[in-house]
Amino acid sequence: MNLTGDAGKRLDHFLQEHLPQFSRSRLQSWIKEGRVLINGSAAKASLMLHGGEGIEVSPADEVPLLAAPEDLPLEILHQDVAVIAINKPAGLVVHAGAGAESGTLVNRLVHHFATLSQVGGDLRPGIVHRLDKGTSGVLLVARNDAAHRALAAQFAGRTVEKTYLALVHGKVRDEQGRVTAPIARDPNRRIRMTTKLATGRSALTEYRVLRRFEKYTYLEVRIGTGRTHQIRVHLSSIGHPVAGDKVYGAPPAGRIFLHAWRIVFTSPATGERVTVEAPMPVELTDWLASL
Description:
By secondary structure, this protein is an alpha+beta fold. Helix content is 19%, strand content 25%. Strands 4, 5, 6, 7, 8, 11, 12, 13 and 14 form a 9-stranded mixed sheet that branches. A 3-stranded antiparallel sheet has the order 2-1-3. It has a two-stranded antiparallel sheet with strand order 9-10.
């Protein structure tokens, strides 16, 4: 490729702009390996371009996914050339981490799909966002780096619509409401988040009542941000912990009653808005029926 109008840009930034289908880390590794030549010579990522140079890129073969494939069930709700929407069951960890090295959603994904985005790293291929282990429902997976960046930009720009269904303890007073308390890690219990600190990341949770029971309230919940445990900590902060969520003050149950029911996003492949819904798990429909 020849430079025109790109004077003053770093080499790695230039490549990111002109080769968006590849991740930043992959492009930088090619530069280090001497696969990117400027006027026939290798260069550093920080090289400032003057304009008019000739740049030659020799891509390396795609690195195999490091997460081990495991032939386990995977419920696909939607897929196109850019995105896969998965119905994650409660109890399934999304990717490897402390205490979970196998049996994760990622292990299932790499068995079913030959290539996934690498933006999140070798152990989190395709993962753009996450759901807590105890939460079921729709989760989006990127099939390539360009799709990953497009979806990440939508999440950051708050154009992805995320709707959950939750059963909470107590009688929620208003028919609808919002919680905007900032969320931070609880310094006393690291597995928890809290709204009680002066510092924290901004968060927005909106809810409306779907049905009332004697000791519970059934809610539709929408979140404008995606903070760790956001719905759980926000609802607990107003005195209505999610049913089954012992971490945030509810009596323990078989699982927590939180389900990612619907997600609406713009497909990186078509540019069209896509709506995906995950049916309510039978254990939750039975729980409601028992009330």
